[in-house]
TrEMBL record:
GO molecular function: L-amino acid transmembrane transporter activity
UniProt keyword terms in alphabetical order: Membrane, Transmembrane, Transmembrane helix
Annotated membrane topology: Multi-pass membrane protein
Classification via InterPro entries: AA/rel_permease1, AminoAcid_Transporter
Protein name (Swiss-Prot/TrEMBL): Amino acid permease
Amino acid sequence: MPEPTSRQPYKISFLTGAAIVVANMVGTGVFTSLGFQVLGIQSGFALLMLWAVGGLIALCGALCYGELAAAMPRSGGEYHYLSQIYHPALGFLSGWVSATVGFAAPTALAAMALGRYAAGVWPAVPPQLLSIGVVLALTVVHGMSSRVGSRLQVVVTAVKVGVLVLFIGAGLLSATPQSIAFLPQAPDWQQLLSPSFAVSLIYVSYAYSGWNAAVYLTGEVAEPQRNLPRILLAGTAVVLLLYVGLNFVFLYGTPVAALSGQLEVGYVAASHIFGPAVGRLMGAVIAVLLVSTISSMVFAGPRIIQVMGEDLPALRGLAVVSKNGVPVRALLLQTSLTLFFILTSTFEQVLLYAGFILSLFTFLTVLGLFVLRQRRPDLPRPYRAWGYPLTPLVFLGLSGWTLIFILRDKPTESLYGLATLAVGAVVYFVGRQLARR
């Protein structure tokens, strides 16, 4: 007698996968980073070009990851790719970073931003306690089953995209145009090569981080070799359009001086465009939308820790899954790290620290596309990166430029990132020694 359908392993559809990508990307960065960017750049053209260049980097990365995901269809993302392309030690360091920084830190950032936005609307609500409460609640939801978590993800992401499209349309109709110019002048082109532009690209790159989210769930995606490239490209393209449109409305309807240095730029912009009452409402809506970002990271991150546990005897306990197929121990570990970041760090410290270390491993992964084509030319590739070799070279050039400026201008956060790698290397080699014994 055939097994009931309800017991069949749940597979993530194209729609759910695209929702996970969009939810991972649209969140903390776009609602918080413009205030930092206008401190060094005053040109409307250059500010919008920041978001266009960031989107170009993400699209080129998605094209490259699509080929890697189709050629090596297994959950784990960079951990799996770097282990196969370079060496298991580098793969472990990537997984270590994903486990300790890649999802826990952005989850903490989204939760901290949610608390700050909510405090602007409801001053009596303690921001930190709200951040912690939301993380714990979503951990419980995703710990129940993948099916429940996936359905929640699609619903909240659809609401998020709808609200942002509504905000962009209403803002264009209602805003009082500011004096900022969006058509390029001669000095604007020079700003594109300035140190301020490169440093601001750090914040934009973080806002786009998450374009590769679906590759961490490859083993749970229906027809991964067909669907994963489509998921990555569709999700990234949607976010690119949303980001450019949203930041145009922020700048078009809000004085630059009012945005400068502000974390809650969505709240500030809505207050100037629609008035204080609607501004408070928008702040509340953004706080709710950030729940989608937190949810997607709580859903995807533990799968990397699970795959590492499957491969390394010293971490075998983290590979255990519940009867519903959820890696509960890995989920609890990620939640613990998220709470640690919320309780011990400031928003900007976590953002710069996470941005540097995550960019480093996406750089190495895209570089691995060239290595894999050299070493494994006969490997089946159901999907090949469009525009190769130009698209990976564009990604590597722009990402490498950003990394150099982070090292030069933000040495403290960069050193924290390198220290995280050093700790991961110690864990890897100690684990290998214990396994041999």
